[in-house]
Design a protein that fits this description.
Layout (H helix, E strand, L loop, with lengths): L2 H60 L4 H7 L6 H14 L6 H12 L3 H16 L16
């Protein structure tokens, strides 16, 4: 066989091998990226659901009259003490997914429930979920009569 034919065949085999390996690498990294994207999406959805539930519990603690409406969906929350216990459980569970700022502000709220602590916790949750800062602060307390 002619040496130039062997060189051409060798070059073609090398190119096909390189393309096959690079194709496999591209497919592997694409799959890995998509999997991580899916996991982050699931984490975000879980976090959003938990934060909404926590917000409802905090608002109920601030305005116990709202307990009547919660009982329709959560008959196990019979009184304000049940709400506090549930909020503490949510706080402990939040160690699995919440940012440090959310955990700190939620702990402060549970220790001394107040509208300003609610706002601080909600703002921390918003930043944790969406990464956005806000200029909203204690000025919204005027709507609560505080």
């Amino acid at each position: 066989m002619n040496p130039s034919v062997v060189t051409i065949i060798s070059a073609v085999v090398s190119m096909l091998t390189a393309l096959g390996v690079s194709g496999l690498l591209v497919a592997f990294f694409q799959h890995r990226f998509e999997h991580q994207k899916q996991v982050r999406g699931l984490e975000h959805d879980l976090k959003e659901k938990r934060y909404k539930a926590i917000n409802i519990l905090m608002l109920t603690l601030l305005d116990p009259a709202g307990l009547v409406h919660i009982k329709d969906h959560r008959p196990d929350l019979g009184n304000i003490d049940d709400v506090v216990k549930e909020l503490r459980t949510e706080m402990l569970n939040s160690f699995l997914f919440a940012s440090d700022d959310v955990i700190r502000s939620l702990t402060e709220f549970i220790a001394q429930p107040a509208h300003d602590r609610y706002i601080k916790t909600a703002v921390s949750m918003r930043k944790d979920l969406w990464g956005t800062d806000t200029s909203i602060g204690n000025e919204v307390l005027q709507f609560f009569g505080e």
